[in-house]
Design goal:
The protein is α/β, with parallel strands linked by helices and about 600 residues long. Helix content is about 50%, strand content about 10%. Strands 7-6-5-11-12 form a five-stranded parallel beta sheet, sandwiched between helices. The protein has a four-stranded antiparallel beta sheet with strand order 1-2-4-3, covered by helices on one side. The two termini are about 35 Å apart. It binds arginine. Monomer.
Length: about 600
């Protein structure tokens, strides 16, 4: 439909120019999708702002535009006679045969009308990015799910996407971790093979407790940081063991969720940190304030009204999170080799890091590290809350482990499924039950996250996300299952064009119109990086489909209606599958 929208936009503008050539006014058709189905497909409100400057009633202006518009043969082919409504809105309705032709074109198109871009420069999506030896928490889960969906949409549009896991694998905390490791598991440091260090989160807690209580442990830990930074082989080995252990844990979650990521942690940028500070000094941005190297931010001031600094080198000479992110930006935009040559870098983190990124982006911009027309964007998201509106916790008050959370989603789905099978007196084998429970449970977790506007906080509720009704993964997956059932009952959903599509029922036209919105929705998601737009669309589509299928006979209809209706079923399932796939959610034939 986007191509139709663009064509209409051009025709309207040309008509306005012909009618009001001498207006000396900026002419804008103000074309938008109709707000209600009874207004047709599109609405053009461009007559209204011309009323004052032209000194004419807006309805007269609309009439003049319509007169020019209908004289255009290309327009007449596309739309029925326009209607003028209210003070001077022009309502446009596409010709049914045009809608059918658009639909026909989609039936043979695996991309369902979504064009591909011809871009060579990669888009980087920096997402997930948990910290070594620390818990991968629900915030990282959100980043993982949202980042993966955005990467999928960009990849589908044809962008080369670099999915980067900016893991926190460097920093002073490794001093205490390595010291602790050397003392509790010295044998690990001499073994050639991978070793299992057990639960790293508990390990971290023990190391931290010792660091807080024991002065000599503290001193050794500080010396250990220096050794590590100096490249001491034993320290590096210990660091590597800790990273490997975490990596294996993270990978389990990624495997479970079907997430592909390239790890490029903070440590990767170590060799570039000094150069970042040197370059900032060279371009005159660096100010030494109380011994620390910083850049004062423009347009940002603290509570006292003083300009806020972005610290890039601590007074002890060490670098920090911001220095690493600056080095990362510089590397990502620099042409290769020695850079990624990216065109766009997207960071998916919690909203709490917004000011960090604003500062880093500003400094990188002023230092000239973001070549135009490239861009950086922070894609923030809100907190995950429990049912009570507070930070998500287990019943005993601990932070929720991701593995437990995903397992519980699957277990609950399994229980619901067994109940449903019993109610329906259906019997299925164990393999089926396990597969459906896993697939639907994980889909529910992903979808619940993606379907809320990411900026707002989001209340995690198993009951809500697993419900078979409402804007949930099970509801959408069930629509796909329903259509697969039509095929099993003898409806030919085979690929390829249908000789002639004929529709007569309002429910059919509603579904046709809904199906044709897909490409526009994808364009919107790509632009605004809001996966919930796609979710809302898929939910709406499922509802329109269910209304159609409940009210219009398909398998029992006579030809040619039967084939046309089956074509609608097929395009619906294709659109749902493609759309859910872009959200990282695979569909099922039965559930
Ligand atoms: N490791 C960080 C955290 O857990 C997220 C890193 C995000 N990416 C970045 N380039 N700063 O909060």
């Amino acid at each position: 439909m986007l191509t139709v929208l663009h064509a209409l936009q051009g025709q309207l503008l040309a008509a306005m120019q012909r009618a009001f050539q001498e207006a000396g006014q900026p002419l804008d058709p103000q074309l938008a999708p109709a707000s209600k189905p009874e207004f047709g497909d599109f609405q053009a409100n461009g007559a209204l702002p011309l009323a004052k400057p032209l000194g004419q009633p807006p309805r007269a202006i609309a009439t003049a535009i319509v007169k020019q518009l209908t004289a255009d043969p290309a327009f007449a082919e596309l739309c029925l006679e326009p209607q003028i409504a209210g003070p001077g809105f022009i309502n446009l309705t596409l010709r049914p045969e045009r809608l059918a032709a658009e639909l026909q074109a989609r039936l043979g198109d695996p991309r369902l009308g979504v064009p591909t871009v011809e871009m060579q420069a990669p888009v980087i999506v920096d997402f997930s990015s948990p910290n070594i030896a620390k818990e991968m928490h629900v915030g990282h889960l959100r980043s993982t799910i949202i980042g993966d969906a955005l990467a999928r949409v960009l990849e589908f549009r044809g962008h080369p996407v670099l999915r980067l896991n900016h893991v926190g694998d460097w920093g002073t905390q490794f001093g205490m971790l390595i010291t602790h490791l050397k003392q509790v598991a010295p044998e690990a440091l001499t073994m050639a093979d991978a070793v299992d260090l057990g639960d790293l989160v508990a390990f971290y807690r023990q190391a931290k407790a010792r660091f807080d209580d024991d002065e000599s442990f503290q001193t050794t830990s500080r010396e250990e940081v220096v050794k590590l930074q100096g490249g001491d082989p034993v320290s590096l080995k210990a660091w590597g063991l800790l990273c490997d252990q975490s990596r294996r844990e993270f990978q389990k979650i990624y495997d479970q969720l079907g997430i592909r990521l390239t790890e490029r942690g903070e440590s990767f940028y170590n060799p570039h940190l000094q150069a970042v500070v040197d370059d900032l000094r060279a371009v005159g941005l660096l100010v030494v304030d109380a011994g620390a190297g910083c850049v004062f931010l423009e347009g940002v001031s603290g509570k006292d009204g003083q300009p806020l600094p972005l610290i890039v080198q601590k007074s002890d000479g060490g670098f920090n999170y911001a220095t690493t992110d600056l080095a990362a930006i510089r590397y990502r935009f620099a042409p290769g080799p020695g850079g990624d040559g990216a065109s766009r870098v997207i960071y998916v983190t919690d909203a709490g890091q917004a000011s960090h990124f604003a500062g880093v982006f500003q400094v990188a911009q002023r230092a000239g590290w973001i070549p135009s027309p490239c861009g950086v964007e922070h894609v923030p998201f809100g907190l995950v809350q429990g049912d009570d509106g507070k930070k998500l916790k287990t019943r005993s008050g601990d932070t929720v482990r991701l593995k437990d959370l995903l397992d519980e989603a699957v277990e609950r789905t399994e229980a619901d499924l067994r109940q449903r099978l019993a109610d329906e007196q259906r019997s299925e084998d164990e393999a089926f039950i396990q597969q459906v429970a896993t697939s639907v449970g994980l889909a529910a977790v992903k979808y619940a996250d993606l379907s809320t506007n990411r900026i707002t906080n989001y209340q995690f509720s198993f009951d809500r996300m697993l419900a078979l009704t409402g804007n949930t993964a099970p509801y959408l997956l069930y629509a796909v299952v329903r259509i697969a059932g039509i095929a099993r009952k003898g409806g030919d959903l085979g690929a390829g064009a249908v000789a002639s599509l004929t529709f007569s029922e309002a429910q059919e036209w509603a579904l046709v119109r809904e199906l044709l919105k897909f490409d526009g929705v994808i364009a919107e998601v790509e632009q605004e990086l809001l996966p919930n737009r796609l979710c809302n669309y898929l939910f709406e589509l499922s509802q329109v489909f269910n209304r159609f299928y409940d009210q219009v006979p398909v398998l029992k209809a006579e030809e040619p209606a039967r084939s046309s209706r089956l074509a609608l079923c097929r395009l619906t399932t294709d659109t749902l599958s493609l759309g859910l796939g872009l959200l990282g959610i695979p569909t099922l034939e039965r559930m």
